[in-house]
Structure formats: C-alpha cells, structure tokens
Amino acid sequence: MRYLFKRSAVVAAVGSAALFAACKDSTSVPDLNNVSSATIAGGLNAATAQLLLSGLLNNNRTNNGFRYLVFAETMARDVYNLDPAESRFITELLGVPIDPSAFTGGGSWLGYFQSIRTGKALLEGIGSAQGLSAQEQAGVRGITHTIMALELLRAWEMRGNNGIPVTVPNTINDPVSPILCTPNALAAISAILDSGATDLAAAGSSFGQIQLPAGFSTNGSFDNPAGFLKFNRAIKGQVEVYRGLAGNAASFTAAVTALNASFLDTTATTLTGGVYYTYSTAPGETQRPIAASTIYLNPSVGDSIQAGDLRAAKIKTIARVTRNNVQTTYTTTLSDPANLTGPIPIIRNAELILLRAQAEIGLGQLDAATRDLNVVRRKEGGLPNYATFTSATAAINALLYEKRYSLLLEGGAHRLVDLRFYNRFNATNLRKEQSADAFNSVLPIPKTEIDLRGGNVTCQ
Fold first, then answer.
1. Which residues constitute the signal peptide according to the record (predicted)?
2. Smallest Cα–Cα separation from 112: which of 445, 454, 455, 341?
3. Strand 326-332 vs strand 344-348: parallel, antiparallel, or unpaired?
C-alpha cells in the first residue's frame, strides 16, 4: 500500500510516504493520499502524524538506496556497477572530477532535504496534535529528530568537506540555509540527536498509537522509547567518532559514552542485532535496492581478504568481466538479483563495536581497541586474535580491514568516510582505476544547488 502526500509552501516536495513493510506489516494508517496543506495546517491528529512519520521513514529507506550504496562503495574501491548502458558509474566516480550536473554529482542530495522538510512539519505540528498524549507526542519528536539526524549524516557522508545545509527554508521566499563545513555540520547533527534523546526519555514505556516498521523489531526491540533511544545513541556514537576524526579530540570520549549507552554487546553470540531496512515484493512496496546483476566487487576486495576469513562467503569468484574500462573476477552474494527481500542494516552490533574500537584508537587506548577489534574478527571472521597493538597505525590498518569485510555493502558509507579521514585517497594507498583517476572521496555540490545560491557554495 502507498501513501502519497503533498503540502505546498509548508511541506514542499516531501515525496512518497509508502510504508516500510508489506501490507501485512502495515502501521494501520488510513489512505490519506494527497493530504492538502489546509488539512495539515488545521492541525495534526494520530492518523496524519503517523502518515507523516511513515513518509519520513520511507524517505530514509529510499535515500539509502542503490545510488547511495553504490556511489559510496565505488569511490571507496569496494564495488563496481558495470552497467553496459551507463559508463559514468565508473568513469566519473573513479575517473575525471565528478560532473555536478550529472546523475552522479547531483545524486544523493535532494531526498535528504525532502526528509528534513517532512521532519520540520512534524516537529512544528506535533505539539498540538489531537488524540495524542504528551508522551506520544514526545515519542514522535524523538523518532523524528533521530531520523532527521540520520538523513543529514548521510548527506554529509557523501559531500564531506564540501559541506551541507542542516535545515531547509520554510517557504520558497525564505533565504537559503547556510552550507556548513564538516565540524559545524557534525556538531549540528550531534545536537539534533541529543534533542531526540531528550524527547525519547520523556516518551514513556511505549509509542502508544505510533507504530514503526518491522525492521525495528526483527533483530532487537527498538520499537519502543527505551529501545529507540539505544538506536539514537548508536547514531550519536558514529557522529562523535567522526567529530573526533575531524579534530575534536573530546568527541572520542563522547563517542565511547554514547556507544556504551547504545545496544553494543560484545557478549552476543552473533553480532547481527540492530535496526534494519526491510523490503517486499508486494504491490506498491520497495524491493531490495542492491539486488542487481550489474554489481561486481572491485578486485582489491577479493584479492585482499585473509585466508580462512569466514566473510569470504560474501565473495564469489567468476570468469573475468571487462567493461567500462575496468575488469574484475569477483561478484558478491550481497547483490544477488534473486534476493529481492533481504534486509539491509541501518546500524548493527558489529558496527558499534568497531566504532568503539575506532574511538579507543583515537584516545590512544590500544589495549581496549584490540579487544573490541578481536570480538568482530573472531565472531564474524573466525580468525585468530590480533596481538595487542603497539601503534595507532597498525590498529587503524586492522580497523579498516575488519570494517571493510564485516560492513561490505551495508547501510552506510563506512569505508568512504574512513579512507577520507585517514588520508588514504591517494596513489600510495589505492590502485589507480582509470588513467585519469581523480581519487574522488566526495561528491560535489549539485549544479542545481550551486545555481540556486548564485554560485556561492562556500561552507561555513
């Protein structure tokens, strides 16, 4: 089932509000297609609040789709999308500077800010929503702040030091929002997450009438305020690690604090617990975005995995494929075109443990970092423990290896961001893929955004 709505001047270009799960997982929202601005301006109620929240969550899942995953993993030298009809997945992402007017340079942008507009509408209207208790209203605010922060984090992951705006104007007549450089953008995202945490702490023991998609309960209990707060702290931990890598050393300590308050669990038998996007082949629903026969692995992925690593099960050796100026002998089970419904993690336990190790490396706590890295290495890779690291460089090399193979083609630009922060985007650390390899680590600000701002996209 699909719920579409528009709100001119207040919620412009919000986009599809299709529910996450199949009809059997419906959040029981009535069919309020094309909700008018007058209807929403008259005040939210339980049904319209659920509709807007479902739209926000669906946009978040859509924004984590094919382009986001493939663009990030291609630039990070993990994936090739060898589409015979479109060579720019290779020639631009790996080659010449990316064209800001093309689908590559202009991609992974608008959808995030459509979500921010939807979130603003929810936050502005939820306080007077009819039929929702104060605790239910707090729950909606907590969810909304968390998902808005996640959308902004993804926008920043793709643009890095080019910067991002962290809010949108209320109307087309308002001035454009400033573009923030990495330190200010990440600080703003962190503050939004903290606002969400405050809201969730006031939301009681359940979300009441508000329901979340199946992926918040299939691998843990994140469909209630206490569980969702752990999800919020997980994203907060990721943001604080990035703030630490960007130069704010105190953020590494904040990252450890947040991650310890999340659902991180080194004692779990498997490290799959977490929040997931779910997919369906039911009419009107969304199928798994990376179920594509054109996705192959960069040769460095298959060539670099250590002997005996159980994560090699993700890698398939095939006859050599040469296309779009690259060649490979590897594909991956993760992009099996027959797997149309398999979930994709938003964030899971293995990533949290690796993020804490990353923060510990930043703090110089190499003993603790070694212990955390070994949890993932042993439980997911089936490999013997690392000896305690005696240098940050050795620990970082191990971190990059463990993150690469545990988080391959999962829901985030993990490796892209790490290579960027650790200054690995150069010929010393990466093999040239094209004759004009630009070692692209970020996407440009899209041409439409440049034009809207009269050419001034210098971040603050």
1. 1-21
2. 445
3. unpaired
